[in-house]
Amino acid sequence: MDSLYIHIPFCNRICAYCDFNKFLIKNQPVDEYVDMLIKELSFLEDKNLKTIYVGGGTPTALNMNQLEKLLKYIKENFNVSDEYTFEANPDELTTEKISLLKDYGVNRVSLGVQTFNNKLLEVLGRTHNFDDIYTSINHMEKIGLDNYSIDLMYNLPGEEMSDIEDSLKNIQILKPKHISWYSLIIEKHTIFYNKIKSGQLNIASSEVEGERYHRVMQGLKDIGYHQYEISNFSSKPEFESSHNKTYWKNNEYYGAGAGSHGYVNGQRYFNVKPVPHYINRMKEDTNAVKDIHTLSKKEMYEEEMFLNLRLNKGLRINQFKEKYGVSLFDIYQNVIDKHVTSNNLEIRNGYLRLTEQGKVVGNDVFIDFLID
Ligand code: SF4
């Protein structure tokens, strides 16, 4: 096993677009949650890993004692040979917390910036502002935890192209090692979804979304960032996220914490979501798995395509045969021909990959890889 994802499902405020498994931290049994999370981690078989990613929710919403307890357990019980990331919100990343993360071996921070525009941050329901972004980054640099990624979103309600230009300018000043820049997806059961349904909020058309995506890709390229995935960019190849590449390469990983997912021995598993259920389950058991899904061959093929095609490099054609004992072209010849002809896919150096045009219409391409 190469990778472990750990979920901290608490936030200080709930953002208007968020459909993750998260709960307002106030009055939550956070100490108990951390204890049960540690119990779940203790039962994982393989403790020698390449990557750990602690996400949420907001891991930095934990107080110093809770954070230290978790960090200490991980340090004393796991070997992480490559990348150890914590997600953080800019306004919660105090110097004390940064030092604590660094002291316990965290070597990468994924900072939830979203946008540099204070008005848009307010619309999103974020707790931080522009100044918090710069302050937290200055602190990280001073303390020496300077391998950070910034998470951004485009296609926000009320966003103009000038906001993307503004983000690009800030990126030029800050020079983060890594950038994730996703299009906002409106998910059901979110405040944004209800507002759009009732006409209180507008979201741009898919044409405008495509233009913005083009600008994000071109703008980052112009200032020296290399795109290695549909929405991910790094200043140098060594700063690509090893942990996230585990997912995109369709490799297996552990998931721990309420609502987390894992992929072990060809089975995808899902933990119970609500915090009290998770705690009660973990009090009596060695895991909190709610469902296990054994992938059929068809599902394995489909996932191999969707995930690997997200990478700029694409899917190594021989890898498909090595993994599944059948040629990619025996399964997908027609789909590949169709999208190569329409210039959404190309075959180069033994890899099948999306073209620049294909990245913009990626979902339409992926749908065709579903097997009837
Ligand atoms: S901080 Fe992150 S996890 Fe929490 S509500 Fe906002 S987007 Fe969701």
Automatic annotation (TrEMBL):
The answer to keyword Iron applying to this record is yes
Q: Does the keyword Iron-sulfur apply?
A: yes
- What domain of life is recorded for the organism? Bacteria
Mind listing the UniProt keywords for this protein, alphabetically?
4Fe-4S, Chaperone, Cytoplasm, Heme, Iron, Iron-sulfur, Metal-binding, Oxidoreductase, S-adenosyl-L-methionine
Any one Gene Ontology MF annotation carried by this entry is: coproporphyrinogen oxidase activity
* Domain Radical SAM core: residue ranges: 1-226
PANTHER family, alphabetically?
COPROPORPHYRINIGEN III OXIDASE (PTHR13932), RADICAL S-ADENOSYL METHIONINE DOMAIN-CONTAINING PROTEIN 1, MITOCHONDRIAL (PTHR13932:SF5)
Main location, first listed in the record? cytoplasm
- Source species taxonomy: Bacteria, Bacillati, Bacillota, Bacilli, Bacillales
Show the InterPro entries listed in the entry: Aldolase_TIM (IPR013785), Coproporphyrinogen-III_oxidase (IPR034505), Elp3/MiaA/NifB-like_rSAM (IPR006638), HemN_C (IPR010723), HemW-like (IPR004559), rSAM (IPR007197), rSAM_sf (IPR058240)
In its UniProt entry, what is this protein called? Heme chaperone HemW
Q: Which family does it belong to?
A: Belongs to the anaerobic coproporphyrinogen-III oxidase family. HemW subfamily.
Q: Where in the cell is it found?
A: Cytoplasm
User: Which Pfam families does the entry mention?
Assistant: HemN_C (PF06969), Radical_SAM (PF04055)
Q: Which NCBIfam families match?
A: hemN_rel
Q: Provide the GO biological process annotations.
A: porphyrin-containing compound biosynthetic process
- Give a GO cellular-component term: cytoplasm
Q: What does this protein do?
A: Probably acts as a heme chaperone, transferring heme to an unknown acceptor. Binds one molecule of heme per monomer, possibly covalently. Binds 1 [4Fe-4S] cluster. The cluster is coordinated with 3 cysteines and an exchangeable S-adenosyl-L-methionine.
